[in-house]
Each structure stands twice: as C-alpha cells, then as structure tokens.
Amino acid sequence: MTTSRTKTKKKGKAAGSKPTASENGWLTAKKCDRFDLYEKAVQEPESEVDLVEQIWKEQRDRRCLSIREDFCGSACVCMEWVKRRRDHGAVGVDLDPAVLKWAQDRIPQRLTREQQGRVELVQADVLTVETEPVDSVLAMNFSYYLFTTRDKLRGYFARVRDALVDDGLFLLDAYGGSDSFLEMEEERDLDGFTYVWDQHSYDPITGAASNFIHFRFPDGSKIERAFEYHWRLWTLPEIREVLAEAGFRTSIVYWEGTDEETEEGDGEWTVSEKGEACPGWVAYIVGLK
Ligand SMILES: C[S@@+](CC[C@H](N)C(=O)[O-])C[C@H]1O[C@@H](n2cnc3c(N)ncnc32)[C@H](O)[C@@H]1O
Known about the structure:
Blueprint: H1 34-42, H2 45-59, E1 66-70, H3 76-84, E2 89-94, H4 97-110, H5 113-116, E3 119-123, E4 134-139, H6 150-163, E5 164-176, E6 184-189, E7 194-202, E8 208-216, E9 222-232, H7 236-245, E10 250-258, E11 265-271, E12 281-288
Parallel strand pairs: 1-2, 1-4, 2-3, 4-5
Antiparallel strand pairs: 5-12, 6-7, 7-8, 8-9, 10-11, 10-12
C-alpha cells in the first residue's frame, strides 16, 4: 500500500502531467495566497470530520459534540465540524495571528450566523492554552512532530488529556514508511499549480526531519518554502508509549485499507494491531482517556 504522506486531495491530474488552468485562469505566484494553496493541496476537512464521527461511533456509545482543533491553521476542520450538525461546537487553537486572521476573515463567507456562534478561534500555545473540557482534541497533519523530545511530547499529551472530558478521545495522525526516511521531492499537479512536498533533510542519529512545501506555477513563477517544518520523525510505537506515559488508559491505531486495483490507500480506516511495511503510509491514533 502506498499512501501520500500529506493526505492529498484526490483531485487534479496525476503527478507528471501539466497543471490544468484553474477556474480563474492560469495562476502565478503573484496572484496566489499561500494559505489558500495549502488548503487546496493538503486539507480534506470533510474526510477528517467523517473519520471523527466514525471513530466515535465505533469507540463510544454517544456522539462527539465538541472538538478542539490544535494547530488549527486555517481552521477548516472547525468550520466543517460546526457545519455538519446543529449541536456541534468547535475551538481552534493556533500560535500564529496571521493564519488566524486569514481564517477569521473567511468565517462570514463560509458559515451562517448561527454556525459562527458555535466556533471560537484562540491565539495561544497548545502547551499552555486553557479551554472548557471537550469531547475530542484533534492534532492533525503531524503538527505535534514539532515537539522533538520525549519530555516535550509527553508534556503536550498530558495537557491534552487534561483538556478532555472523562470519556474523551484524542485523535492524532502519523506518517511513516521507508520513503519517509529519504531526502526526496514529490510533486502533484493540481488546479492551476503544482504542489511540491520536499523532504529536505533527515538525520538518522537525532530523527530530525526538515520538510518544506513549495508551490510552482505554469509561467515558471514559484513560492519556494511557502511552509517549513522542522520535526522529529516519531514512530507509532513511540507515540503510543508516550501517550501511555502521559496517562492515556490505552491507544488504538486506525490503519488504511488498500485499493486492489491501484494498490494505494482506499480511504477506509479500521482498527488494526498489525500494519504493513509499505513505502509511505498515514495512520490515525486514538488516545482513550
Ligand atoms: C502543519 S500546520 C497544520 C495546519 C492544519 N491543522 C492542518 O491540518 O493542515 C501547523 C500549525 O501549527 C501552528 N503551531 C505551531 N506551534 C504551535 C504551538 N505551540 N501552539 C499552537 N499552534 C502552533 C502553526 O502556526 C501552524 O499554523
């Protein structure tokens, strides 16, 4: 099974072909906004919310009503969450005022007045933020890999545990596979631009990985290093051990099925005790309080 490390949207032409003209004609670096390109290339809020609902259905005998989206960036999961059902509420937490302003400016176009009343964005550090107890905390797109020591990661997980209600679930994703340890670039042609995932450096002694996202356009213009991440490449057993050390009663892994025709991930997630040694995978971990 091969699964993109960036949970790619399955849209646009296959890698290797030319990008198509977008609805707005040919895009250029000057015309584009990096947060907008990021959302188009990387995020899949509908699938993420589907998965939260699936996990709650399978692990608890009630629905999840409130989420906190840590490292929320453009907060598109918060917005999808409150759109999904009238009794849903969401809090998004991010350190960066620029991305929160970008998100806040889009809320009036994306949500009704009633939905707007059920979402709150907070500028804060996830290590120190104080929020009302929630049913689920989400830490997606591997953002918590920025905690590069076991102590820091345990400290964050313990804060998350404290932020949950008694039967709360912590949902986080992880990536790995043999390709994740390589220094390589992966390109995908999308609607008017090319998305590049650049695994720029990896140090096997420290586990430090520096990854960049670049955007390139048909006229040759570029936004190089639009986003950069300096992470530690954590493995699933390490993450589960640290969850246990932080006080989570147990943790489970949702592994993706394989499409028999393409041999790629099929978007179906099931609880698994055993994975596959494939070149690239994404998995979801659930920490049960
Ligand atoms: C990889 S992006 C994730 C965006 C989004 N959650 C997603 O799924 O694509 C990481 C985000 O984490 C934020 N961030 C980094 N350190 C943080 C911290 N200590 N507390 C809160 N947010 C932080 C950054 O500002 C950035 O918006």
